[in-house]
Amino acid sequence: MKNTKYAAFQEFSGLVCAFHWIRAFSIFALIATGFYIAYPFLQPKISPEPVNFLQAYIRSAHLICGFALIGVSFFRLYLFIFDQKSAFERESISQLKNPKVWLSLIGSYLWLSKHPHIKGAYNPLQFVTYFGLAVLVLLISLTGISLYINVYHEGLGGMLMPFFKWVEVVCGGLANVRAIHHILTWAFVIFIPVHIYLAVWNSIKYPNGGVDGIVSGIRYQKH
């Protein structure tokens, strides 16, 4: 029986892998702390001393992770557009308008056909999904900053207020901003299990890197 040989190549740079996991950790932390801020179900022990800062600690963690997500997302976009090591990712755009690739791809997910040959790091469905995720990050960041500047009027909040006050106006008030922010959070809650399932499914069905690629940055191709 002839053995199939594979060659390893770098699919993602170290920075891309690091940014993925920073964003993943930030999103998980933001969901947990955000739901707690909306419904603070934990009650610290009553004390006459000013030490009951649980809500403040949770809010601080939420803000830190929020600004980490914003900062990393900016750098991630910069790498995708300008980084030479990310050229393999940019190749994915070339197949978005190819209906044959889309049909074969959907067929492979339905176990009806083989996975088509993909140019670049992402298949068309992945690329569209990740683009949608980027839009979600943008919208939830805008609404998050709008909520932030209405609580913190000095320092960074005061600096950002002239640039982001329009978000509250466009949304029709701060209550609507909070509602939109909450609804967008549920979009992330839905995305995460689907993303994990499809990533693992793809790794099992096509074991040429898959999930390993975003951990090590390495993918394997047949000679």
TrEMBL record:
Residues 12-208 form the Cytochrome b561 bacterial/Ni-hydrogenase domain. It is found in: Cell membrane. The chain crosses the membrane at residues 21-41, 61-82, 127-149, 183-204. GO terms for biological process: respiratory electron transport chain. Keywords: Cell membrane, Electron transport, Heme, Iron, Membrane, Metal-binding, Transmembrane, Transmembrane helix, Transport. InterPro entries: Cyt_b561_bac/Ni-Hgenase (IPR011577), Di-haem_cyt_TM (IPR016174), Hydrogenase_cytochrome (IPR051542), Ni-dep_Hydgase_cyt-B (IPR000516). SUPFAM superfamilies: Transmembrane di-heme cytochromes (SSF81342). One of its GO terms (cellular component) is plasma membrane. Gene3D superfamilies: Transmembrane di-heme cytochromes, Chain C (1.20.950.20). It is a multi-pass membrane protein. GO terms for molecular function: electron transfer activity; heme binding; iron ion binding. The keyword Membrane applies. Pfam families: Ni_hydr_CYTB. Belongs to the HupC/HyaC/HydC family. This is Ni/Fe-hydrogenase, b-type cytochrome subunit.
